[in-house]
Structure formats: C-alpha cells, structure tokens
Amino acid sequence: MLESTPRRILGIDPGLQCTGYAVLESTPRGATLCEAGVIRTTGKDLALRLATLHDSIVEILDEWQPETIAVEQLYSHYDHPRTAILMGHARGIFFLLGGRRKLPVLSYPSTHIKRLVTGSGRASKVQMQHAIMRELGLAAPPEPHDVADAVAVALCHLSALKRSHLT
Amino acid sequence: MLESTPRRILGIDPGLQCTGYAVLESTPRGATLCEAGVIRTTGKDLALRLATLHDSIVEILDEWQPETIAVEQLYSHYDHPRTAILMGHARGIFFLLGGRRKLPVLSYPSTHIKRLVTGSGRASKVQMQHAIMRELGLAAPPEPHDVADAVAVALCHLSALKRSHLT
To answer: Is B55 designated active site?
Structure first.
C-alpha cells in the first residue's frame, strides 16, 4: 500500500537534564524534518523538572499533531541503574501523554536503532550524528547528540512502518 | 510550634500493576486514616496503564487536597533493574502531578520507613502490615501489603514533620 497522507512521528530521546526530540514527516520522497531540538530542565526539584518536560512535549504535540510517539527502549541501560531509573521517570511522562491522547507510543531497542541508521548496532554518538546528517541532507551534524538520537528513533519507526506496508 | 490545622499527606507505594495509596491526616491526637486502597492497572499498553494511574491519583488529590505527597525512594531496588525502571515510569507520574499542582513530593528510603514503623530497617511485609494495624488502631492488617506500605511512607513523612517542629 502506498502512503497517501504524510505521517508525522515524534521521536524522543529521554533524559532528565536534556531530552532530544524530533518531529519527522514521511512523504513519498522520504522523511523530512519538521522540527527538532532539546528540552533542558534544571534544578533539584524532580517534580518541577518533570512538569517542565511535560509542558514542553504538550506544546510540540499541539503544534505538530504527530500520529505516533517513538522512544528508545530503556533496558540497555542496566549498567547505570540510577540513571535508567531516573530516565524511567521522564519516560513515564511521554507514555502518559500518549495514553491520554490515544497516540501509540512505541519503543525500539537502542541496537536496532543504531543498526538501522549506521549499519552497526554499536555505532558511536558521532557516527549517529553523521548518519542522520546524511539521511536528512543537513548541512551539519545535529547538535547535541540527543537531537540525532531522537531523529534516529523516529526514522526507525518510519522504517518499521514501511516494512509493515510491504508485507 | 503546635499544629493548628490538620495536615493531610498522600502516601504512595508505586507499582505498575498495583499502586498502594493512603491519605492520612495529622491531628493533635495522632494520625488518622482518611482513605486508603490500591489502584490496579492491567493490559499490555504501558501508555494506557499510566493514564489510568494518573487519572486515579488526580481523583484522590481532588477529593482530599493533601498538602504533600510522600513516596518511597527507588534506589533500593537495584537488584531488579527492570522492575525498578518500570516503577520509575509510574513514579514519574506522581512527581509530575506534584509539580503541576505545586505540591512538594518527598521520598524516603525504604529502610528508613521500615525502621520508623517497626523498629527494624529489614522488616518483612507482614511485620509492616501488623505495625500499621497497631499504629492506626485498625481491626485487621491492611491488605494487600501495598496499602500498608503507602500508610507507612505517609507516617514517615508526618514523623519527619514532627521532628522539624521540635527543633
């Protein structure tokens, strides 16, 4: 089946200090970038930081009306359990927003995303940034790397969609 | 300083399948239980489960208007990182609600809570249930144990408040 209407995906690379996000649109000629950036939260109050993150994502959802949210799976971060647990707090916000808006929230393993974008499941952050630059025809690699990671997970979802249309 | 108005605390024992909650009111004669129970979520869709959890806590906050939320610290759960990360998702919702409503969300280490309630930082679930039954003058131990744990963390916060008033 060919896609008739553009699909918009919000890709998110969750972090408490710095969350990367990217809205991609899938067109017959490939993926185009609508908007990407990072949401930074500071301060010692976890509750206020999560509220900032929530409100920022609400703004992005309102503006771009993506049909799906894609995030990285967390289970590759067992080496740093404290960080993974804190990231879980941030990730809970994205799932909550998806649930409340009836948007599917899909997660992809980090190695899967890296392999799709660079050919290697163990690609470095710099390799990911350069691959995303080439893929989207950007003049420079996305900075910080959280933006590239958010684009990558959105691309991963678009690729999964394409495969599901071919089969 | 003596307390003039009763203080209401919402204690939460976070879990994805079963979250215990307890609203306690601190009066000059001690803590009394306003309401306690569990919120259960089912199904494979994490987003919908978190949305259910969110909406249930919103109802409790609206009804009882607690001034503080108290939850257990998560870092004692390193042995089961997958569970701890998933609990982090649920926990993020409570912090978010606190942040959006300008309610402080305080967390206490599990050992600290157990020691306060039973005298031992390594108390079993059954010991906790019996200690809570005695403390609140209940006819039977709270069931399931998640309810007792939610009461315990709220008591822990009231005890911390009392200490801060004495010093």
So the answer is: no
Please report which confidence band the pLDDT of residue A165 belongs to, taking 50, 70 and 90 as the band edges: low
The C-alpha atoms of residue B134 and residue B77 are separated, in whole angstroms, by 28
Residue with tokens 């000629």: A29
Query: How many other C-beta atoms are found inside a 10 Å radius of the C-beta of residue B47?
Result: 24
Using alpha carbons, select from B146, B150, B141, B53 the residue that is nearest to residue B93.
Answer: B53
The pLDDT tens digits of the residues spanning A56-112 come to 999 999 999 999 999 998 765 567 778 888 899 999 999 999 999 999 999 999 999
For A72-86, B57-71, B125-139, which range has the lowest pLDDT when averaged over its residues?
Answer: A72-86
Distance from CA of A54 to the nearest CA of B (A): 8
| Chain A residues with a Cβ under 8 Å from any Cβ in chain B | 45-52, 54, 74-75, 77-78, 81-82, 84-93, 95-96, 98-100, 103-105
Is B76's pLDDT higher than 70?
no
* Nearest residue of chain A to residue B46 (CA atoms): A95
Residues of A in contact with B58 (CB under 8 A): none
Stated pTM of the model: 0.89
CA A100 to chain centre: 19
Active site residue B143: no
ipTM score for this prediction = 0.86
Do residues B63 and B2 make contact, with C-beta atoms less than 8 angstroms apart? Answer: no
Which domains does chain B possess?
Answer: 7-166 (3.30.420.10)
pLDDT single digits (tens) B99-127: 999 999 999 999 999 999 999 999 999 99
Summary count for chain B: helices (H), strands (E):
5, 5
**Catalytic residue status for A3:** no
Contacts of A46 in chain B (CB under 8 A): 95, 99, 105
Give the nearest partner residue to B91 out of A52, A77, A89, using CB atoms: A89
Token output for A40: 């930074």
